[in-house]
Every structure is written in structure tokens, then in C-alpha cells.
Amino acid sequence: MKQSMICASSNFFKKAVLGGWRESEEGLVRLESDSPDVFNVYMQWLYYRTIPVRIDEPGIRENAEYMLLAKAFALGDMLQDGSFQDAVMDAMVDKTSSEASDGQKWFPVGPVIRFIYENTLASSKARLFLVDVYTFKGRGNWLTDWATQDDLPKEFLFDIAQSLLNKRQRPEWHGLVQGSCEYHQHGASDCYKSLLDLRPKPG
Ligand SMILES: [Zn+2]
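That is the input. Now the predicted structure with zinc ion docked in place:
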């Protein structure tokens, strides 16, 4: 990989090379924590300025690609390459808005959420994206059928609760109507109010 090409895109590498890091003497910067798959996404970005979204399979496979994109986003953070991160977000949006081979749209679930929340700051656009996906498209069973409790950090649950409260429609609240038994526990038996009516009237 040409130094100039990678340094033009990534501040991390620019500093690594200009800053005289030990690795840069050999022209080598080691990225230990990242899998080759993720780095391939970055290479493709450097050469072709594209983030391919390849997999159109439903279910688990679909989420494997969301996970790859989430890892690419985190790599972009480390490399301080904002344009790459923006392109990764566009790829996620593409995935979310296109149908898989089963004709359904598949959304990021459990492990992807955990990864993003563990590897980004509160201001991150990746978090905002997840919160919007759940606000606008989410179903309650996404939190139970497609995630374990450990996948769902308190911060994420707080974010979607707040987002839903702010964005939801406000339907008629039937429980608030006077005389409603909505919050009584008597069920089919008599309400205390009807029992009060049976009291002998004073005078
Ligand atoms: Zn009642």
C-alpha cells in the first residue's frame, strides 16, 4: 500500500509516518486488533472509494455484514478517517433500505448494537443510526428474539426510550377517562364504586 495514498486519507497514519513512530522507520504500521476482513474494507475504500455491500442473504448472514461495517466504523475512528466513516454509514443505510433475497429488510440487532456501543462515543453517528433504526422501524421482539440482555447496554435502551418518547404520536389515553377501571384490580367482580352506591343513603 502506498504511503501517500493511505496518509492522505488517515490522520492516524499521517501522524504515524511524520511523527517518527518506531514502526514508521520500516514503513510498517501494525494494526493488531483488526481482522483482515475489516482492513480489506478499508483497502477497498482507499483504492476505489467504495464500500461494497455484498451479502443479500437474510438473517444471521445479513447481520454478519452489519458487524463488519460496525468494525470498519470503529477502525475509521482509530485511523481518524472521517470520510471513510461517513462512507461506512452510507453502506449501513443502503443495507437497511434494501431487501434481502427473502424479500425482507433486515436490520442490525443484538451483537451489532453491543459492538457499536462498546466502541464508539455517545456523540457517534453510528449510535444515532441505531437509535433511529429502532425508533422508526423497530419492534418489541427485536429486543427479545434477536438479542440477549447482555447485547443491550443500558445506554442504548436509554437512548431509544428517549428517542421514542420524543418522536411518538400521542394517541388518546383511555385509561385517563373518569370512571375508567383501567387501573383497578377487581377484574370481572364489582368495582368498589358500585359497592359504594349500595350503601344506605344518609337521611
Ligand atoms: Zn373499578
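Residues 23 and 29 are 5 Å apart (CA to CA).
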